[in-house]
Amino acid sequence: MKKIKKEDIKQEVFDLYDDYAHNKLARREFIEKLSLYAVGGLTVTSLMSFLMPNYKDTMLVNPKDPELDSGYISYESPKGGGTIKGLLSKPKNSSEKLGGIIVVHENRGLNPYIEDTARRAALEGYITLAPDALTPLGGYPGNDDEGRALQRQRDRDAMLEDFLAAFNYLKDHEQCSGKIGVVGFCFGGWISNMMAVKQPDLAAAVPFYGSQPTEGIDNINAPLMLHFAGLDNRVNAGWPDYEEALKKHNKSYEAYVYPDVNHGFHNTTTPRYDKASAELAWERTMAFFKKHLR
């Protein structure tokens, strides 16, 4: 089988995958459309294999890192989904109070990439909580296709309540300083924006390619750092109106557009990942949290 390289793939293929990953194409329709690009030694099977996430070989943090204390907890979400499972991570043997970061998954539940990201942030000196909004349906099922199907069964406002409850859990944690931020990706980007709208005590919010709120923007107190993918026309279409509202209400924000990269460029597990842009965005994010959470 021909080994596929990222540069061999037309942008239209990544656009198809984006539509599929965001439930705009059923699997059968996705495969049918993908077959149009199965030329020059490429097969539909090889294209599918190339596009799907690879969790085995892409983790940046060893879950058993000796410098890390990481494990699952449960907390109450009275207005959301009842009891929610989350991954709580912090530096091992740290006695000081730490800033908190809520890490919000994409539209498929708490998969290994988000867990890896939460552990990575914890190693920077924070207590992090990565909730699984699929908990009321049994939790992340082990693959993203089923995860997306499950997440479509939940009301997104109820899931927002789950993450607002995560804020309260961290705030009450004995090792949290009370300064809490949020970072989220895709669906989690929307959650990050909405937590800024709904939680007046939020200390910082960092949405990665997340859709934008259309009301309540005047309620935002938290400074925002927003990351956008240059090729992500779907999400980027809402940014001008959001930016206009942020300016109108004199809100603190900084926004970055990373040229020639796709939605999901921070996700290490798919070929949409762009190492240079992802590392720059993460460096900026950590500097932003250091400024506002310490």
The proportion of residues in beta strands is 15-25%
User: What about the largest sheet?
Assistant: 8 strands, mixed
Topology as a string of helices (H) and strands (E): HHHEEEHEHHEHEEHHEH
Note the total helix count. 10
Task: Report the CATH C-level class of the largest domain.
Answer: Alpha Beta
Domain unit count: 2
| Radius of gyration over all CA atoms, rounded | 19 Å
Record the strand order, biggest sheet. Answer: 1-2-4-3-5-6-7-8
Uncertain regions spanning at least 5 consecutive residues: none
Mean pLDDT: 96
What do we call the CATH homologous superfamily of the largest domain?
Alpha/Beta hydrolase fold, catalytic domain
3D architecture notes:
- The protein has an eight-stranded mixed β-sheet with strand order 1-2-4-3-5-6-7-8, sandwiched between helices.
- The protein has helices spanning 11-21, 27-34, 44-51, 112-122, 144-151, 156-172, 187-198, 233-236, 239-248, 275-293; strands at 68-77, 82-91, 98-104, 127-131, 176-185, 204-208, 224-229, 253-258.
- With 294 residues, the protein is an alpha/beta fold.
- The mean pLDDT is 96.
- Helix 1 (11-21) packs antiparallel against helix 2 (27-34).
- Helix content is 37%, strand content 20%.
- The chain has two domains: 6-51, no CATH class; 68-293, Alpha/Beta hydrolase fold, catalytic domain (Rossmann fold, 3-Layer(aba) Sandwich).
